[in-house]
Amino acid sequence: MSSIYSVWDVGLTLAVGLVLARWLGPYMARVFMGRPTLLDTLLGPFERGLFRLLGTNPRSSMGWKEYAVSLILLNGLAMVFVFALLIMQGGLPLNAWGAPGMSWDLALHTSASFTTNTDFQHYAGETQLSLLSALAGLEMLMFLSAVTGLSVIVAFIRGFVRRDGTIGNFWVDATRAATRVFVPLALVAALVFLLLGVEQTLSQSTSVSLLNGTVEAVPAGPLASWGGIELLGTNGGGFFASNFGQPLQNPTALTNDVAVVIMMLIPFTTPFMFGEMVRRPKEAQPLIAAVLAIFVVALGLFFVFEIANPALNGLPVSQASGYAVMGGESRFTLGETSLFQVTSIYANVGATSMALQSLTPGAQLVLLWGMFLQDAPGGVGTGFGMLLVNVLLAIFVGGLMVGRTPEYLGKKVGRSTMKWAAVTLLSHPFAILIPLAITAAWPGLLAQATGAGSGSQGFTQVLYEFASESANNGSGMGFPLGAGDATPYFNVVGAIIMLVGRFLPILAMLAVGGALARERIMPPGPGTLKTQSATFTAYFIVFVLVVSGLLFLPVLAMGPFSSGVTPP
């Protein structure tokens, strides 16, 4: 009975998320196209005052280079501010647990992590982070990184409809993304969590009565508001070290389902926003179909691999779903925890409610593949940007195969577009494989980090960490007792991977948008590829999977496959 309930629960949660995304897409398109919305009366005066303060004309539009400089400047200044805050937090207020200032390398990794929307944590929030650093530093960056990602995809999309070489104004896009999308939606998400029993307090501890009659002080904080932007902005950094496996953060099956819907919201909305912005709503259909097909298959494979965990055969271990599962959340069914974890990884959120190190190699492979893809659906903005880059590459390859000039939405896919699309595609494997090769080849470094004799599992852990950092995901498999990744080497290398994995693709996406914006719009002809078709959808899915496989199958053979990926 519980397994039947689990299937219905998973199906209903996915349906709710897709319905909300379909409704939100046209609204977000109106926001970034400058069309009237219900919030104009309330927010218009505030935004105009902010534009005057910034010295920007909301009607002016930037080329991609100016847009990129503005974006890098804002994010760079924010990162420096948070880096300094983390180092000095030991002597600052709102530090009830006495968290000391972070070392320079840990502060570098943490500030880079939250600036890049990765939120990979080499620290334990309960003991190493003050409330001031959490709210004024990391939560601020969670909003900024989400705003940055959404602004990038909006600018990218404008390249398909403009002909003057400009892609919009970063300061206007960032302001509207914050005031009209993330702040109101994060507020709603926080209120929903609060009503469902998630704690919200500025006190840094709360008293809990234990079964033996004693009272224990445990860490507390503004969990409802933190969880809202953590999930909505595809950030994923937990207020606690155990993230959404912490009962105070995720107390019931209902909060678990709500969390999944919030994670889905923006990533699944952007295809619908894209269709509205290019004035071809049906163009969203093949993209959302491709994303859903990959996502649902990944969810099914993850579920099946976890059911057939050979390590638990014959052991008296069970879960609410009735299946023997290791590393899962025992309070929920396997279907519910699988949906949470796969959504988190494939939407590049990175929040965790399972012990990823204890998953079967097959389940770990499924999660790794989601980070290799980055676009099923991927994180806020940049995930859909990667999807569009793959569309352009697929159309270009298809055009070469039939001997016709490739074009998409009336724009010619030319040499400059393909050059920057290739940079976007290759930046991810380069950011993962180069440091992975150095780590594996350096004498003793891999064994020191993952424990002597860890073999393919240790290799998988380092591969997972670097893939998570490059994909701006933030989830981690953890390292064995006595070893760890919170070392100067992994802090510095991880910070470099995150910054390269975030901003090099962003610059390339903006360059692609700028190149498309210089192309004139051509009417469809006999050689135009019909993208609104089941044939193109199937071709596109195969293209994405094959390209990802060619890039990453060799390292998978050294990791999960060597650990024993076997069919159930």
What does the model show?
By secondary structure, the chain is mainly α. It has a domain at 379-563. 62% of the residues lie in helices and 2% in strands. It contains 19 helices and 4 strands. It has helices at residues 2-32, 40-54, 64-88, 104-115, 125-128, 131-158, 170-195, 223-232, 253-277, 284-307, 334-346, 361-373, 382-402, 415-441, 445-450, 455-470, 488-517, 534-558, 560-563; strands at 205-209, 215-219, 407-408, 411-412. The strands form 2 sheets. A two-stranded antiparallel sheet has the order 1-2. Strands 3-4 form a two-stranded antiparallel sheet. A hairpin with a 2-residue loop joins strand 3 and strand 4 (411-412). Helix 8 (223-232) packs parallel to helix 9 (253-277). The chain starts with a helix and ends in a 5-residue tail after the last helix. 54% of the residues are buried.
